[in-house]
Amino acid sequence: MDESRLVRLLTEFKDEIKKELEVKVDQIKDKLEENWNKTIEKIETCERKMHFWEREIRRII
Fold first, then answer.
1. From which domain of life does this come (predicted)?
2. How far apart are CA 32 and CA 60, in angstroms?
3. In this structure, is residue 2 part of a structural domain?
4. C-alpha 36: how far from chain center
5. pLDDT tens readout for residues 3-56
6. What is the 8-class DSSP label of residue 4?
């Protein structure tokens, strides 16, 4: 195998790995965003419940 062929094969291999990594990074970003959004929704739900109970307590007192 000559040197230029080896360089070409290594470059192709590097490019394949890079593409695979980009896909994995995108998948991780998507999952993080999904989890972040779920967390924000939970926080907002808790805040609404807290405000509701604060009003109820004030109403009772």
1. Eukaryota
2. 42
3. no
4. 7
5. 899 999 999 999 999 999 999 999 999 999 999 999 999 999 999 999 999 999
6. H
Residue 41: inside a domain? yes
pLDDT band at 61; cut points 50, 70, 90: confident
16: DSSP letter: H
Rounded to an integer, what is the distance from CA 26 to the centroid of its chain?
8
Residue owning tokens 């965003």? 33
Q: Which residues of 14-44 are buried (b: 16+ CB within 10 A; e: fewer)?
A: eeeeeeeeeeeeeeeeeeeeeeeeeeeeeee
CA distance 34 to 41: 11
Give domain status of residue 55, yes or no.
yes
Interatomic CA distance for residues 9 and 36, integer angstroms: 40
